Inverse folding.
């Protein structure tokens, strides 16, 4: 166990770190108010990434439904395993077709 003196020393160190962090935060807030161009850049950045943020929040809100859906699909595929194989083949076919189209378009761009 730590002695009381070591705990006091550790406590003093943590308190000084907290004080320094508070000073840093207040200084950055002061700088933030003064720097209007940075404020404008932040606003532009938030507007630019807003669609991605909304999309990500939508994905996160659908997480519980995805859990329910995956559980239902797991039970369904246990009862009907041929359907899983059929959909896996379809998925592989679609993925292969997509790769073929992508490489063909890339080759056409390199030639022309």
């Amino acid at each position: 166990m730590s002695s009381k003196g070591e705990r006091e020393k550790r406590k003093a160190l943590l308190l000084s770190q907290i004080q320094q962090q508070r000073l840093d935060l207040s200084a950055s807030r002061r700088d933030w108010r003064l720097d209007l161009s940075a404020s404008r850049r932040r606003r532009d950045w938030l507007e630019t990434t807003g669609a991605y943020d909304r999309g990500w929040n939508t994905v996160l809100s659908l997480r519980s439904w995805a859990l329910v859906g995956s559980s239902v699909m797991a039970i369904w595929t246990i009862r009907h395993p041929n359907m899983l194989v059929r959909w896996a083949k379809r998925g592989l076919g679609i993925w292969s077709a997509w790769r073929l189209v992508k490489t063909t378009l890339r080759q056409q761009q390199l030639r022309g």
Observations:
- The chain has a mean pLDDT of 87.
- The two ends are 75 Å apart (CA to CA).
- The chain has four helices and no strands.
- Residues 4-34 form the longest helix (31 residues).
